[in-house]
Amino acid sequence: MSCPALLIAGTHSGCGKTTLTLGVMAALARRGVTVQPFKCGPDFIDPSLHRMVTGRISRNLDVRMCGADFVRRTFHRNGAGCDCAVVEGVMGLFDGGEGSSAHLAKTLDLPVLLVIDVRSAAESVAAVAHGFATLDPELRLAGIICNRVGSDRHREMIAEAIKAHCDLPIIGFLPRNETVSIPSRHLGLHMGEEHPLHGEGLAQLISLIESHLDLDLLLAIAGQRQEVAAEPEAPVVERGTLVRIGVARDAAFCFYYEDNLDLLRQAGAELVFFSPLRDAELPPALQGLYLGGGYPELYASALSANSDLRAQIHDFAQAGRPVYGECGGFMYLCRSIIDQAGVCFPMVGLYPFAARMQPRLRSLGYRRPLVERDCLLAARGALLHGHEFHYSTIEDQEAFPTAYRLDDGRCEGFLHKNTLAGYLHLHWGRTPQAPARFVAACRSSS
């Protein structure tokens, strides 16, 4: 891939990296630049925001979860033909080891722009910039963006200090402006499909970027990236007859890795999208179901009220048809969801568990489940890769059969007939045989 590309990183979470990245993407798009967005790490929400402002599907680039070879292939395949690829980092630049923004930047030879929140600091910003620039000599830190500047004098003090101590260009100084921030909730920011920045808010953000950032310099830095040889594409999984897999996709079920959907298609799946919130019945002639994660707890009343569809999904799974559920999809397959007020909403009832919402995060982190029992995605002994992030806990799960064992000893991947479901969000970049096995199971169950 030889098109211009860069990575926008932050000194820490909460420095304004996401809002600034969205502004850069949107401002470049308004110039007529074809921007291909990417996200470092396992996050589902930021890619939806990228799509909102660019009109293009954003892909996750996660070396830790997917491996360097898959990341290079994804970057090359999806970035080819665009005018500029913009990658949003994760947490602080060096946070996360193999999954960090710094590691990704070195893997793809990306120049890095560092966002520094300069509130409550002035000359000390130069020490921060100098430290980030010199910590890893193999990393190409190419510029600084100062966010939340308080005044002209504040800007001058920072600029003078950085010039005296760092050989780094300053791409711009963004003033404090809380009116363009994106609202958040318990799993993170609002999804792009909800248009948290729209109309006047997005226009204001673009105006701020255009007025306070040197976009010509930014594009020049992106153009300095050296061409990286493309990784050979992985062998295509042998396809049989096309199978129809229903994919739940709406405001309640919106967490899917786009590469997973592509891998299902490559394995011979026709994906048929439907809404558990709105549709009264399943699409016709389905041979399998995929229920992704999202926010079923926010829509529990509407999901529960759609009893006809819940019954159809229950009967589909009870008949032994393949069903795969992740996190929110798993909660939907349980007996009920109980909100923090104690209100109980009946769900599909395939699993005899209650998913109870908690006030604090219950689990977060990368997971490598070891398959201990043959299941829909893998045979015993296989190692899968994914991420876990949820606020609910499962009640009444004792002695229920499971497919996986996690690194910490927990059992996961709950089994019922030909259904596999649990809290893990798996990415199949390292294991394309998993979606192929899923498709084959759907084909053989017809």
Question: Can you offer a commentary on this structure?
Answer:
With 446 residues, the protein is α/β, with parallel strands linked by helices. The chain has two domains: 5-222, P-loop containing nucleotide triphosphate hydrolases (Rossmann fold); 243-444, 3-Layer(aba) Sandwich (Rossmann fold). 31% of the residues lie in helices and 27% in strands. The chain contains 14 helices and 26 strands. The chain has helices at 17-30, 45-54, 63-66, 68-79, 101-108, 124-134, 152-165, 200-212, 215-222, 258-266, 300-305, 307-318, 328-333, 433-444, and strands at 5-10, 35-40, 59-61, 84-92, 112-117, 141-149, 170-175, 184-185, 188-189, 243-248, 253-255, 269-274, 288-291, 293-294, 323-326, 334-338, 344-346, 351-357, 363-367, 370-371, 386-390, 392-395, 402-405, 411-416, 419-422, 425-426. Strands 12-10-13-15-25-24-23-20 form an eight-stranded mixed sheet, sandwiched between helices. It has a seven-stranded parallel sheet with strand order 3-2-4-1-5-6-7, sandwiched between helices. The chain has a four-stranded mixed sheet with strand order 17-16-18-22. Helix 6 (124-134) packs across helix 7 (152-165). The longest helix is centred in the N-terminal third of the chain and has 14 residues, at 17-30. The protein starts with a strand and ends with a helix.
N-to-C terminal Cα separation, in Å?
42 Å
Q: What is the global morphology?
A: globular
Q: Over all CA atoms, what is the radius of gyration?
A: 23 Å
Annotation field: number of helices: 14
Q: What percent of residues are in strands?
A: 25-35%
What low-confidence regions span 5 or more consecutive residues with pLDDT below 50? 184-189
CATH class term of the largest domain: Alpha Beta
Number of domains: 2
Strand order of the largest sheet: 12-10-13-15-25-24-23-20
CATH superfamily assignment of the largest domain? P-loop containing nucleotide triphosphate hydrolases
CATH architecture of the largest domain: 3-Layer(aba) Sandwich
Helix percent reads 25-40%
What class would the helix/strand composition place it in?
alpha/beta
Total strands: the figure is 26
The overall pLDDT, averaged over residues, is 92
**CATH topology term of the largest domain:** Rossmann fold
The major beta sheet can be summarized as: 8 strands, mixed
